[in-house]
């Protein structure tokens, strides 16, 4: 998830730098959003929740009213003993 500071203006979308093989999972618009204020409705914030019993991580993007506009669940890989992380 790529996020900027809370006081950042909107910008982009820009081309991705493929050095680490990124993938676009959510994009709010295809048009230039250069330096719009928060009242334009194109600024978002993220949250992450990890289920302590399963290790499933849910990453969500929210609009300024807190509504979830995109969410993805990520399952843990392999046989990991998660009990040490969630005491």
SSE pattern, N- to C-terminal:
EEE
Q: So how many helices?
A: 0
* β-strand amount: 15-25%
Alpha carbon gyration radius: 16 Å
* N/C terminus separation: 26 Å
Query: What's the overall geometry?
Result: globular
Across the major sheet, the strand order is 1-2-3
- Quick one: how many beta strands? 3
Largest sheet: 3 strands, antiparallel
Q: Give me the secondary-structure category.
A: mainly beta
- Estimate the mean pLDDT confidence: 79
Could you name the ranges where pLDDT drops below 50 across 5 or more consecutive residues?
Answer: none
Q: What is the helical fraction, as a range of percent?
A: under 10%
Tell me about this structure:
The chain has 87 residues and is mainly β. Helix content is 0%, strand content 22%. It is built from no helices and three strands. The chain has strands at residues 45-50, 57-62, 68-74. The protein has a three-stranded antiparallel β-sheet with strand order 1-2-3, with no helix packed on it. β2 and β3 (68-74) form a beta hairpin. It is globular and about 45 Å long. The mean pLDDT is 79.
Provide a short characterization of the protein structure.
By secondary structure, this protein is mainly beta.
SSE topology:
Layout lengths: L44 E6 L6 E6 L5 E7 L13
Antiparallel strand pairs: 1-2, 2-3
């Amino acid at each position: 998830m790529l996020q900027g500071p809370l006081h950042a203006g909107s910008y982009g979308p820009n081309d991705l730098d493929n050095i680490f093989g990124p993938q676009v999972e959510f994009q709010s618009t295809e048009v230039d959003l250069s330096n719009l204020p928060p009242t334009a409705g194109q600024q978002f914030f993220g949250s992450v929740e990890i289920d302590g019993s399963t290790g499933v991580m849910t990453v969500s993007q929210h609009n300024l009213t807190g509504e979830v506009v995109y969410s993805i669940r990520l399952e843990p890989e392999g046989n990991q003993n998660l009990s040490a992380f969630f005491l």
